[in-house]
Amino acid sequence: VSDLISELQTIVGDGHVLTAADLRAGYETDWTGRWQGESVAVVRPADTGEVSAVLRACASRRVAVVTQGGNTGLVGGATPAGPPPAIVLSMRRLDSIGDADPALMQLPCGAGVTLARLQQAAADAGLQAGLDLAARDSATVGGLAACNAGGLQAIRYGTARRRIAGLEAVLADGGVVSKMSGLAKDNAGYDLASLLIGSEGTLAVITRVLWSMVPRFADRALALVAVDSAAAAVAGARALLPRLPSLELLELIDEPSLRISLEYLAGSPPVPITPAWLLVGCASTGDAQEELAAALVESGLDERTVVAVDATRRQRLLSIRESVTEAIASAGVPHKLDVGVPLATLESFLDELPAVVGAAAPGARTFVYGHLGDGNLHVNLLGPAPDDESADEAVLELAARSGGTITAEHGVGRHKPQYLSLVRSDAEIAAMRAIKRALDPEGVLNPGVILA
Ligand code: 2HG
Ligand code: ZN
Description:
Elements: H1 2-12, E1 17-18, H2 21-28, E2 41-43, H3 48-60, E3 64-68, E4 86-90, E5 106-110, H4 115-124, E6 127-128, H5 141-146, H6 154-157, H7 160-163, E7 164-170, E8 176-178, H8 192-196, E9 205-212, E10 214-215, E11 219-227, H9 230-240, E12 247-254, H10 255-265, E13 276-284, H11 288-298, E14 305-308, H12 311-322, H13 324-329, E15 335-340, H14 343-360, E16 365-371, E17 376-382, H15 390-401, H16 426-439
Parallel strand pairs: 2-4, 3-4
Antiparallel strand pairs: 1-2, 5-9, 6-10, 7-8, 7-9, 11-13, 11-14, 12-13, 12-16, 15-17, 16-17
Helix pairs in contact: 1-3, 9-14, 14-15
């Protein structure tokens, strides 16, 4: 390993190979504290050429490469686990933003650009990024691509895959693949960019992304609606979806989640506390407030409702939803699940959930919140020990049984390879293994992630 360290120092410079335990520590634990590991070094390349040289140096010695952006992932996908020995490849220094193409609405970004900077650059171009999530100040574009991030606006603009027009990446052997032309149509062979999106650092290291922005809809309105049951929340979502073309966000916060968030924010409830709250946001070229109000009336959601139009008031309502994650983290090390369940079976999923958790982890506190409009709910559990998987397994089985998926946005990571067969067939897993072997024959790229 010592000759690897000196080679890495030659490639990226001494100051960008962190070997001291205290300097490595922040890169070796995930945001929740549930996933931890050890690396031989944290390596911070500055550009694609350095990434390529680092990968060649590691592959020839079969040292694993765990790529990391803002370290905001929630499934341990950027945390080394070993064996084999690993480096953490921090991509944050690849943070340059190129010139926006205002006609094609495309923006080239280095993998280390944060989502907040991407959003600002899009706004400077009179557009918007079309993707938003609470970790925006730390999460990086490379991580959004590698995990096919979803977030609050996926219901309108899709997940990261739909927002990425192309990318550049370094393969395990150091080779560089690039599709940064911005061509709207290009059918010359397999779409490697699309394959690498969502591959969680297991097939290549994404170094640049051509981001596809969306028009800016200046007129916005956001409603917070108190409803009496999960059933009413699901029915409300189903009623709103076809009625509100300007819908940009449709979120659920259950009672335990809204209570812990209000307590964390020391805020008072803007609507009565009921078993569930809905957040309904729209962004329009017309009159957002009028469109939202009409859809709420037609959907029977106009009682116990507050509507915010100006940015400060909207932000205040949104912060109740966005703070749930931090509020739960401040109360313990959570188990985090991000199931996707079809709206058609979501009500029965929510009905069964308390008994399923209760049987697997008696006394656990359950929080349910998230992207109701996409059928993507975050189930967070407090109580079970970090290595106790019984409740996780029971909830994921329930999601699969409900016709859903074990992960709608956070990815498989280190947490869920053991559950992949709940939602992917033997044939599908064999095809994934064949792709992995072909692109990473030595198995050095993020081993143990996605495929066990
Ligand atoms: C969100 O939607 C994120 O806020 C995090 O996906 C969810 O903390 C979670 O479980
Ligand atoms: Zn989410």
